[in-house]
From TrEMBL:
Source organism of this protein record: Pedobacter cryotolerans
Alphabetic keyword roster: Signal
Keyword Amino-acid biosynthesis: no
Signal peptide start-end: 1-20
Record-linked InterPro entries: Lipid/polyisoprenoid-bd_YceI, TTHA0802/YceI-like_sf
Superkingdom assignment: Bacteria
Biological classification of the source: Bacteria, Pseudomonadati, Bacteroidota, Sphingobacteriia, Sphingobacteriales
Occurrences of domain Lipid/polyisoprenoid-binding YceI-like (ranges): 28-198
PANTHER family in UniProt: PROTEIN YCEI (PTHR34406)
Protein name: YceI family protein
Length: 199
């Protein structure tokens, strides 16, 4: 009986080793931050503002051509407003960097880590952990993955909707402050992410 148990245990150990030894290893592609972008848009009752944030780094991992892992880090100290693509707003930039909004002195980076990818081909759904102001929340969004002839891969999420209040950004939130009248900012803002990567 003891011998039978020992043999069963040994077979289980060997099977486990074989599984991990031959599990496919993801090919990791490094994001080119000079070719990649993060854009944002926030809305209030009387209008909207848009701009961008610079990327610090990022990676994408693939099994074959299937996206399986990855993520990116954004430099929140580089928040820039460019309404209409050409109109800077230095005053708003300063406010967005303040504690009322993203508190970039204390939280200079935001990051996203992929946890799950579903779907096949160029169109997928991505779920991952987004961290802003030290708070992590799960977000899910559609994305496209396109392979180029130059061995680069471009992963694009045109519209990721984020509820800022879940990350402690509560300034002029109508859902939290009932006496704002028309002087409120919508809780949800959107970001667009384009990651160009190469092995």
């Amino acid at each position: 009986m003891k011998l039978k148990f020992s043999l069963t245990f040994l077979l289980a150990v060997v099977a486990s080793f074989a599984f991990f030894a031959f599990a496919p290893k993801a090919d990791v592609y490094t994001v080119d931050v000079t070719k990649s972008t993060i854009t944002w848009e926030g809305k209030k009752f009387s209008g909207s503002h848009a701009g961008f944030v610079n990327l610090t780094s990022g990676t994408l991992g693939f099994n074959g051509k299937k996206l399986t892992q990855g993520g990116f880090i954004a430099n929140m100290t580089t928040i820039k407003t460019m309404d209409g693509g050409t109109k800077p707003n230095a005053g708003l930039d300063k406010h967005l960097k303040a504690d009322d909004f993203f508190g970039v002195e204390k939280f200079p980076a935001a990051n996203f880590v992929i946890k799950k990818v579903s779907g096949n081909g160029a169109n997928v759904n991505v779920t991952g952990d987004l961290t802003i102001k030290g708070v992590t929340q799960s977000v899910t969004f559609p994305a496209s993955v396109v392979w180029g002839a130059d061995n680069t891969v471009t992963a694009t999420a045109e519209k990721i909707t984020i509820d800022r209040t879940k990350f402690g950004v509560k300034y002029k939130s109508k859902s939290l402050f009932a006496d704002l009248g028309d002087n409120f900012i919508y809780d949800e803002f959107t970001i667009g992410v384009k990651l160009v990567a190469k092995k």
